[in-house]
Each structure stands twice: as structure tokens, then as C-alpha cells.
Amino acid sequence: MTGRLTDKVAVITGGGNGIGRATAVRFAEEGAAVLVADIQADRGAETVALVQEAGGQARFFSLDAVSPDDNDAMAQAAVEAFGSIHVVVTAAGITHADYSSGDLEADLKMAAGAMEYADEPARAFPESDLDNWRRVIDVNLTGTLLAMQACTARMLDAGTRGSIVTLASIAAKHPDAGPLAYTVSKAGVWMLTKKAARMLAPAGIRVNAIGPGFIDTNMTAFIDLIETEAGISPLADMIPLGHKGQPRDIANCALFLASDESAYFTGEILHPDGGFFTE
Ligand SMILES: NC(=O)c1ccc[n+]([C@@H]2O[C@H](COP(=O)([O-])OP(=O)(O)OC[C@H]3O[C@@H](n4cnc5c(N)ncnc54)[C@H](O)[C@@H]3O)[C@@H](O)[C@H]2O)c1
Q: What is the CATH number of the domain that holds 49?
């Protein structure tokens, strides 16, 4: 099926890698023009090229998700490039303060830091780093809010009905699915989604979240490495389907939530998670 987003304009934060990139490509396949926003300009440009090679329309915007000015300029750039905004996907996210998508060493360092508490796990709670907490909440939660505010302001100005899709996580509901600040930030994204759904419903703007399980992107690459080195596979034990999902699995979920097929969904979270939440 094609054309499910014909004549629609989508803004995708975190569009330079992983889930955001797959969503940009998937949306373009269905006819949307896409503004790809990311802090990694080179990767964002690659996404734009992928969309254009497939015959779609895309532009890159250099975004730091924590900046109100950047978010405002991003929404303005989408309107100037494509005329309006119908769909917003907020995929920009980090797992820890030093996260830079594709920097495996920083992720392994974060994982090694967590292992330091193996003998006295409870101590990890009072000793959790405040700067890390602030940065993760800032990017994941405040960044999501800022993108939503900047884009919905334009949608309301133009009287455009539409769909916002946030990226939460299974970690929004399950404390074992990520580090402290990450799980709390994603629980915040989930409540932000529900609150915004109620506040924006009168304007015909729907707001839903995706809460993916473990997806095969830069964000989870370090887990594979640890598993290989340790000769264990905890993920396989946690996921009934036995493997990670692919970015396109999440893009398809985002497509459903972005399109009119989900017209009666708002304030909902969908969990493409390979069965993680079957317990
Ligand atoms: N991969 C998973 O298993 C998984 C599971 C649940 C939720 N998620 C969420 O999905 C979203 C996408 O993650 P992914 O797995 O595709 O990882 P990813 O690293 O491939 O993509 C994250 C993107 O966000 C961008 N980004 C980071 N900080 C930014 C900032 N300050 N401003 C603008 N862009 C910034 C990165 O450059 C990158 O392109 C994230 O919010 C993540 O928390 C991922």
C-alpha cells in the first residue's frame, strides 16, 4: 500500500540515525515530505539523500533538541520549505549524558560504570550522577516537549489537524529496561503524550507514543558486544520473539499512528516489543 501520507509534511527529530531515519524513509515512501532534524549533520544529510534517492522530498535541519530557539526555527523551516506541518515524530534521544549515536566506546564506558556497583547494587541509587540526570531529562523529555510546542504552534496558527508521535520506550513502564534517568525520562514522555493528547484534542491534533522494546540501532549495539564477550544472551531471555526489532518495525508503527488509519487513537502507547510486555 502506498500514498498513506500523500501531501503530508512530517518533521522528524533524531532523523539522522536508527528509528528516526527509518521513519523518514518509510514516510517518504508513503508520499510525505520530510524535515529531518538532528544534532549529527552528516548523518542527517545521509537520511535526506536516502529519501531523495527513493524519489521523496526531504530537507535537513540542524537541531539541538534542548534548544527552544532551534526547535522554533525547525518548525519554521518546515513551514517555509513545505508549507505546513501535519505530522511530528520526536525520535531524538540519548541513554546517558555522553551518548553520541554510533560512539560505542561511550556506551561501553556507561555500562562498565554500572558494573562498578555489582557488589553493592543499592549504592548506585544515591550515587547516580546529577549532571547525567539533568542532561538525559533535558534531551529526552524537555526536548520532546519543545519540538511538540514549536510544531503545534504552527499547526494551530494554520488550523492544521494532524498527528504527533513521541518515542517513549518499554522503559516508560518497566524500571529494568534502562538506566535511572532514561527510564524516568521515558515515563515522562508517556505522561507528556497523554497530557498533550487531552490538551490538543479540541484542535484535532492526535498525540500518541511508541514504546519500543530493544531495537537494532546504535543505541543498543553495545548490548550485543557485551553479550558476545560474556557469552550470554539476556535479551533473548527477555524477548519472547527471541531477537531485537528492526528500525523499520518502529517506522511502520509510526506510519500507522501518523496516518488516518489510527484516527480514533489519541493518548495511547503502542509497544512493538517482541512480546516483552507479556509477563
Ligand atoms: N533502540 C532502542 O532499542 C529503543 C528502544 C526504545 C526507545 N528508543 C528511543 O527511540 C529514539 C530513537 O533511538 P534510536 O534507537 O534510533 O537511537 P539512535 O542513536 O540511532 O538515534 C537517536 C538520534 O537522536 C539524535 N540526537 C541525540 N541527541 C540529540 C539532540 N540533543 N538534538 C538532536 N538530535 C539528537 C542522534 O544524533 C540520533 O540520530 C530515542 O528516543 C530512543 O530513546 C529506542
A: 3.40.50.720
